[in-house]
User: Fold this.
Amino acid sequence: MAQEHGRVNAYGMTSYNTRELIIRDDIMAKAEELAELISSSEEVKMFKQAEEKIRNHERVQDLIKQIKKKQKEIVAFETFKNQEMVAKIEREIEELQDEIDSIPLVVEFQQTQSDINYLLQLVVSVIHDTVSEKVNVETGKDMPPSSCG
Assistant:
C-alpha cells in the first residue's frame, strides 16, 4: 500500500491535492485490466486496420504532405503580412482537405476514431454514474440518507 500523503483539515479528515493523490494498487490494476480489454476490442482492431490502410494509401499520404507544405507556406506569408496569399493558400488547403475527406478509406478511418471515442465516453460515463450513486461527485460529500427529510 502506498504511504499516506495529504493534510488533515479542520474536520479531522485528510485532504489531498491532485498531485498528492495516491491511487490504491487494486484500483490501478483494474484500470489497467480495463485498458487492456478496450485495447483488444473490435473497435480498436478496426481502427488499427484502417490506420494501416491510410498509412499505405499513396494518394492520402500525398495529400497530407501537400497540406503540411501549404501550412508552412502560410506561416511564411503571415510573417511577411501577405494576407492575400494566406487566404489563397487556405482555400487550396480546404480543397485538398475536401479531397481527402471524399476518399472512402478516410471516411472509414474517421468512423473508427468516432467509435473508439464513443466507447471511451461510454466507459467513463458508466464509471461516473456508478460512483455517483454512492457519492455526490460534484461536492465530494456522501449522499444524504433517504430517511432525512
Summary: Residues 115 and 121 are 10 Å apart (CA to CA). The chain has a mean pLDDT of 87. The beta strands are 7-8, 14-15, 135-136, 141-142. The two ends are 40 Å apart (CA to CA).
